[in-house]
Design a protein that fits this description.
- The chain is mainly alpha-helical and 185 residues long.
- It contains nine helices and no strands.
- It folds into two domains: 78 residues, RNA polymerase sigma factor, region 2, helix turn helix motif (Rna Polymerase Sigma Factor, Chain: A, Orthogonal Bundle), CATH 1.10.1740.10; 80 residues, Arc Repressor Mutant, subunit A (Orthogonal Bundle).
- 78% of the residues lie in helices and 0% in strands.
- The termini are far apart.
Length: 185
């Protein structure tokens, strides 16, 4: 098929659905972004137009492409937001580390026997304990921990968060047991 014939067939099959696609894309994004999604959809549709066998099935086919475009764009946007959030967390961490004021961890350590913390760290799964220790005890950044442990930054953040939860639960339980036995915490 000639390029001109392909163009005419493409336009007659896909352009009648333009407004419906923009309306659909507007459910997932602001109007200007929705228009970008649809534009990308049409570019991909043009490149894959030979795969459309039935012109009457153009709208569902375009919707499928649009959905993939929207999903990819939202994932990309979420990753960018996550990177911004991580950068903000690291800035806050650097401020805490650079500050002479005691950090939340310093407060905890001053109230808690270091030996109990070490014991608690040994009691939780290694992946969580390692992340918490590297970050909270040794002051390493998420990127540094990710490099050391060979996992993505998001995984490091999850491990630190989950590790802190496990530690808090464990320390609460051991504190309650000590209190029941009449041992000072």
């Amino acid at each position: 098929m000639s390029v001109e014939a392909k163009r005419e067939r493409f336009q007659s099959s896909t352009l009648p659905h333009l407004d419906r696609l923009v309306a659909l894309a507007s459910r997932w994004a602001a109007r200007h972004e929705a228009e970008d999604y649809v534009q990308e959809t049409y570019v991909r549709a043009w490149n894959a137009f030979d795969q459309l066998r039935d012109p009457d099935a153009a709208f569902p086919w375009l919707c499928q492409i649009l959905r993939a475009v929207a999903s990819e764009r939202r994932r990309t946007h979420a990753r960018r937001q996550e990177l911004v959030f991580i950068a903000q967390l690291e800035e806050a961490h650097e401020e805490i580390v650079a500050s002479d004021a005691p950090s939340p961890l310093d407060d905890l350590l001053s109230r808690l026997e270091f030996g109990r913390l070490r014991e608690a760290l040994r009691s939780i799964p290694d992946d969580f304990a390692e992340a918490v220790e590297l970050h909270d005890v040794h002051g390493l950044k998420y990127k540094e921990i990710a490099r050391i442990t060979s996992v993505p930054i998001g995984t490091v953040m999850s491990r630190i968060s989950r590790g802190r939860q496990l530690l808090a639960g464990l320390l609460t339980l051991t504190g309650e047991k000590r209190a029941k036995r009449g041992v000072a915490t």
